[in-house]
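Entry 14. Ran structure prediction on the chain below.
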Amino acid sequence: MTVMTSWDLFEDLRATQDELVRMASRARGTWPGQHYEAGTSAATWAPALDIAEREDAYLVTAELPGVAATDVEITFEDGLLTIQGERHFAHDTTTEKVHRSERRYGAFRRSITLPSHVQADKIEASAQDGVLQIVVPKAKEAQAKRIQVRAGQGNTALTPGKPASNGN
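Output, structure tokens:
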């Protein structure tokens, strides 16, 4: 029995990114999802995202609870899909006394590299219930094609009993 596994285009990138976040978190005494920008002491955040692939497109899903669609900008340039925006603080500090605030607020930016065989002009994004979904269609030439095998019209290299031709 032959066991086949599929190759995940983004698995190595995800594993490396996750390990770097864990290492940086341990060094700073923070937790994954809480990041510090260089040169500042303010915590920033980055939304969690999933990347999936289907036959005709890549799907990028990001968790953006509390972020208005007008506060999100998505760009695609030179194979780099960037999601950026801002989640605003949800409390009015002039009338409320906040006792604990564990959710992260402020600007965020996530960039992922996609293969070059996508239709950039057909990328679509939608948001519902705090979840952003981006559909990045693959170019037609990049989609899998089924090759038909024709019987009776063979190459001598495939004919039983005859030596394979080397093209000379």
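The two ends are 38 Å apart (CA to CA). Will compare against last week's run tomorrow.
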